Protein: DUF4333 domain-containing protein
Amino acid sequence: MTGSLWARRAGAVTGGLAVVLVLLGCGAEPEVEPVSPDALAEAIADSVEEDYAVRPEVSCEEELPAERGAETTCEMTTEDDPDTVFPVTATVTGVDPETGHVDFDVEVSDTPSDEDGSPDGEESGSPEPTDS
Structure:
């Protein structure tokens, strides 16, 4: 969290991100919809661009549930180095059911992922067979 060049609290960015409210009946407490993958990717890119004057490409496969502590991981690349993919974790820090705003922290890993999606230096899947 601290020490990461890319770590950034995205609350101000997502403060403008209104998510649709679903009312569960007359007088019921409203439920906030999750943040869609496209809206999440856009908010992350906005946050990085605001801090570093570089607009990254961000892709998110999953929505971010509108629940405090929920998290999802996206992938980020830059135009200067499109082959280097950095995992980005978005963690919900607050949800306002009255306004539909979802605040979340964004942290970009200091270590890029390998082509298979695992952090550099780590293998994913089954180990290679060895000759005995």
